[in-house]
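so my prof wants the structure for this chain in the tokens format not the other one, which i didnt know existed until like an hour ago. anyway here's the sequence
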Amino acid sequence: MYAEDPYGEWSDPVKLPFGGIDPSLFFDEDGRIYYTGTDKGIFISELTFAKTFSESGSVNISCTGAGEQIYAWNGTGGNNPEGPHLYKKGGLYYLLIAEGGTEYCHMVTVARSRSVYGPYAACPHNPVLTNRSTGLSIKAAGHADLVETKNGSWWAVCLGIRPLGYPFRHNLGRETMLVPVVWENGWPVMGMNGNGHVDAEIETKLLPCTEAEFDREFTSSHYIPGSDVVDNFDTTIMHPSWNTIYNPDDGMYEFSADGLILHGNRQGLSSSFPKALICRRQEHFDFMAELTLSIMNMENMPEGSEAGIAIYMNNRHHYEGAVAMRNGRRCLIIRRRIGNLNAVENVIDCDKETVILRLLGSKETYSFYYKVSENEESVLIGCGETHYLTTEVGGCFTGNYIAIYAVDMDVVCKKFVYKSAK
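here's what i got, hopefully its the right format
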């Protein structure tokens, strides 16, 4: 799709004559536009656009198609060459790709050419970035992209993971990492002191701003906190840190003077259909998430209805602590879903309209607690091992969500608190 204004109006989608993954666009100095992708190898194709003028003088732009699919470079021999990005510097074209798969042998390699279509010559010190076969805490580093800042310094952004322990397991998904880059002999040299690694902490003089500029930027009203957050659900729109999934139905969410109302349908957390659920990414191994929840029409709770807080990888791997109606009893439950294993592991009678549910996370366990007033001590409902909600078990590499949900009942979310452990 294309537009003259990023806010729209956008064209209808233009179907390209090839398949593949990991598309990237490159705008050359002469105005030509190239598409790079991965389909049985790394390929480059030129996209062409036409500009016409209507009788009123308005400009119409149309994509007239894509050129030949030219396979340019398949890397240095690692499996799954993918994630291509094309750049131009000093009159040379640079093709940056990922190799080794998205797992623990991941790496970044680069080649260059005087022609956009190649032939491309590999960098003599490939891979330019990798943490494979090291004892570094960050693993599976790869899929990098390059950016030049306003002060002329260069950086790479890439993905990486932070495993829980050994055998390696990770539950935070593939996270975004930042690595300094310098150019030597016409090649990018990445990592602190050019070590080619993604370190957990990096010392560099390449920051594009002063400390005072940094403080001004990140204390402005535009800054969205990504870690500790309190949401009283007292605005007409959701805080930007909340996500929804499964093509959500807006009718399931309602903002009121009391808080955010979730109108639960019959879809539980194990369903892949639209459900009353909002969630935010787990960002830390050690955290506390707390939800104040009030039940609407408490006397008419349907059998099997429930609402609460969950740690959610996907619809087949999740734990939840919830207020529920089971066998005619209003109660608190903890449930664990691990693949085909699905069990309620504790039931506690509770007839209170408002309940405070707490989820504590650590590298070892996810633990669920409750209390019925702020000045009470929290009571444990139950817990589950963290490693069952990891990529290596659940098969998803997007990490876990902390989720608020409702099933077949209406609830008011009055307050949500997320704090990372210090």
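also thought this was worth mentioning. The mean pLDDT is 91.
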